[in-house]
């Protein structure tokens, strides 16, 4: 009988410790925030620089968010990393605009698709951001390039938690 009581005490103690550890790890776990969709596409017009399909990829960490854009316009010359100054302005469904900006880009060879980002922005829970009506402005070798979406992004706007 003594062995049975000891086993029950150890089993109860182990279950209690496991429960406490699970509760503590949930309390300190970061909030699961997500933007949906994480990837969208648009068709963009970049004036004399061309245009076509572009892929937008968004991430979220609390109120901080990023957007990376891979366009179908090509680099006219080799571009070094972090050499393009970019500003992407989204239309916010709740009114106004939300801006993402930065000077981050990978190194690109002549003819590579121009990719910028991740560009940094600030979002609020429930923000619904659409590229159509906004614009991407890039400065490459001192030349300003403005791209605008020719229609809504697909599959829909970015919605932030």
From TrEMBL:
The protein's name: Lipoprotein
UniProt keyword list: Signal
Leader peptide range in chain numbering: 1-34
UniProt key word Signal: yes
Domain of life: Bacteria
């Amino acid at each position: 009988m003594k062995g049975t009581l000891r086993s029950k005490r150890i089993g109860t103690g182990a279950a209690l410790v496991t429960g406490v550890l699970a509760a503590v790890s949930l309390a300190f776990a970061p909030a699961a925030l997500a933007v949906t969709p994480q990837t969208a596409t648009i068709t963009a017009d970049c004036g004399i620089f061309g245009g076509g399909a572009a892929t937008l990829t968004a991430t979220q960490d609390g109120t901080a968010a990023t957007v990376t854009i891979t366009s179908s316009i090509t680099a006219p010359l080799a571009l070094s990393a972090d050499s393009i100054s970019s500003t992407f302005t989204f239309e916010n469904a709740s009114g106004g605009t939300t801006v993402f900006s930065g000077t981050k880009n990978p190194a690109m060879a002549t003819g590579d698709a121009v990719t910028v980002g991740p560009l940094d922005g600030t979002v609020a829970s429930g923000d619904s951001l659409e590229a159509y009506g906004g614009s991407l402005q890039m400065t490459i070798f001192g030349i300003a390039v403005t791209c605008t979406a020719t229609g809504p992004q697909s599959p829909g706007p970015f919605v932030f938690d």
